[in-house]
Design a protein that fits this description.
Strand content: under 5%
Largest sheet: none
Structural class: mainly alpha
Distance between the termini: 27 Å
Low-confidence stretches: none
Length: 83
């Protein structure tokens, strides 16, 4: 197996994993921000933090991840068509 292709595959894997983790962190931060400004319907601060961690992070993070992958795919196709 060619070492150059293996390194390129590993870099792609790291990039996609970074997009995944970044999407989940961004969704958690947005959930915490919404909880801090009172936009979530919660009775106390602990419940709002739990809601941000349990609901906003997985659902919002996964949605942001798929959106990032779609944008990445469109940009890659556009660059490949230009080359």
């Amino acid at each position: 197996m060619d070492l150059k292709l293996l390194v390129l595959s590993l870099l792609r894997l790291i990039g996609i994993a970074a997009i995944f983790v970044g999407s989940w962190l961004l969704a958690y931060a947005l959930g915490r921000l919404l909880a801090a400004i009172g936009a979530l319907d919660c009775s106390d601060a602990a419940e709002c933090d739990l809601y941000a961690a349990v609901v906003m992070m997985p659902l919002g993070g996964t949605a942001l991840y798929f959106l990032a992958l779609v944008i990445r795919s469109i940009v890659a196709r556009h660059n490949a068509a230009r080359a």
